[in-house]
Amino acid sequence: MSTKKKIIISIISVFIVLTATLAVYYIVNYNTVQSIKEDVGAVKKTLKPGESLSVIGEIKTTDTDEEIDLAMALALKDDVYVMKSSVVRVMHDMTHQKVVASDKWNSIQMTPERIEQIIKVIETKGNGWDLYDNMLKIAKKWQAGDFSEIDKDHNYFWKLENGNIGKAKGIMTPEEEAAFIEKYWGEKTE
Fold it and tell me: Which of 153, 117, 161, 154 is CA-nearest to residue 137?
């Protein structure tokens, strides 16, 4: 086979793999968005006049600390309904700072303050959630500085969100985590 044919076959193969990867990404993202919309629709029907939904599940890697902290503070207001799926999403995204995984689509920096915020949200808004005890137990473990099972924590939340790409395969070294933090939030850790 000539070199020209090999190059053409290689380019076509790369194109096919990229197209398939993008298709899977968009299908998963679309299904997640549809699921959230259905949850929101169901919850809106149960809201009392004056109540509103929490937007903490919409926090993205690109949001500033101020935007994230504001969303978390708003979630604690009496007239705001917080969906369990939103808190699962936030906790899942927080684990990305510490785990080794092939794909991470969103990350929220895991700081002691943010862990405190998520504990307050769970304690104040999550009493009726079927996962309340597990979520609080995990958050309290993080609060105590215990990240020895963060990969298992990630996979717990990942599975709850029907993850099929990006399962955690281990825990980052302190150096890997520092590089991750610097890459996404521009902060150097010691």
Answer: 153
Predicted model pTM = 0.71
Please tell me the distance from the alpha carbon of residue 48 to that of residue 88, in angstroms, as a whole number: 24
Alpha-carbon distance values, 132 to 52, 67, 88, 124, 161 (Å): 21, 25, 10, 11, 16
Q: Which tens digits make up the pLDDT trace of 81-90? A: 888 988 999 9
Q: Are strands 168-171 and 99-101 parallel, antiparallel or unpaired?
A: antiparallel
Q: Report how far residue 4's alpha carbon sits from residue 171's, in angstroms, rounded to the nearest whole number.
A: 43
CB 135 within 8 A of CB 129: yes
How far apart (Å, rounded) are the C-alpha atoms in residues 147 and 108? Answer: 16
Pairing of strands 52-53, 80-81: parallel
